[in-house]
Amino acid sequence: MAGPERITLAMTGASGAQYGLRLLDCLVREDREVHFLISKAAQLVMATETDVSLPAKPQAMQAFLTEYTGATDGQIRVYGKEDWMAPVASGSGAPSAMVVVPCSTGTLSSIATGACNNLIERAADVALKERRQLIVVPREAPYSSIHLEHMLKLSNLGVTILPASPGFYHQPQTVDDLVDFIVARILNCLNIPQDMLPRWGEHHLNSGDD
Ligand SMILES: Cc1cc2nc3c(=O)[nH]c(=O)nc-3n(C[C@H](O)[C@H](O)[C@H](O)COP(=O)(O)O)c2cc1C
């Protein structure tokens, strides 16, 4: 299997809940085990931006997301914000890759300063200390120098800063096409197969054009 078998997916309260939901769907279809974390603010954003009514409690949320994505039992594991006994809270149990999508500037700041005030921040801190793959997908406009400093700090620590800024060269027709652009980029970084967006040059090679 290409890419990590187990992945931590954290959703925080920046705009773009669709990115997180779509990534979850793709990871399930690619048979990955997903350790799912979501902040209170992200739940509010999801209710604002989508038709998905996510239950508040982790156990009910897990059952809901399992059905919503068609995952197998146990494929999606949901943990509460202070569940310090969760595998993601320790280097010995955490998956080898973590994606924070969307990533609020608040959580970006907490990760950059090692705050560890909730399980999302702790899981990211574990990824950093263990030098594991960490991808953050921030969204804000415009960015302040504080946001940019945090991104530079994390980038220098090996974190992938993948801004939620879709390109338009694939001629998107729908909002889903824009969402898929970012999710495909995340999957490429994880080395997980995706067929939503051809890699640069692939279309040219396959088209037979000169
Ligand atoms: C509808 C909505 C949209 C928001 N959009 C953004 C955003 O795009 N970027 C951002 O950094 N914060 C955004 N926020 C503010 C964050 O949710 C807020 O700062 C929150 O404290 C982040 O908490 P968290 O990092 O624990 O999720 C938004 C909030 C709401 C309710």
UniProtKB/TrEMBL annotation:
Cited function: Flavin prenyltransferase that catalyzes the synthesis of the prenylated FMN cofactor (prenyl-FMN) for 4-hydroxy-3-polyprenylbenzoic acid decarboxylase UbiD. The prenyltransferase is metal-independent and links a dimethylallyl moiety from dimethylallyl monophosphate (DMAP) to the flavin N5 and C6 atoms of FMN.
Task: Say if the entry is tagged with keyword Flavoprotein.
Answer: yes
* UniProt xrefs under Pfam families: Flavoprotein
Name the residues that bind FMN: 13-15, 39, 104-107, 116, 139
Q: Which UniProt keywords apply?
A: Flavoprotein, FMN, Prenyltransferase, Transferase
- Tell me the organism: Phytopseudomonas argentinensis
Spell out the family assignment given in the record's similarity comment: Belongs to the UbiX/PAD1 family.
Residue positions binding dimethylallyl phosphate: 169, 185
SUPFAM superfamilies membership: Homo-oligomeric flavin-containing Cys decarboxylases, HFCD
Give the catalysed reaction(s), semicolon-separated: dimethylallyl phosphate + FMNH2 = prenylated FMNH2 + phosphate
One annotated GO molecular function: flavin prenyltransferase activity
Encoding gene per record: ubiX
Which residue range or ranges hold the Flavoprotein domain? 6-188
Q: What is this protein called?
A: Flavin prenyltransferase UbiX
Q: What is its EC number?
A: 2.5.1.129
Q: Which InterPro entries match?
A: Flavin_trans-like, Flavoprotein, UbiX-like
Q: Does the keyword Transferase apply?
A: yes
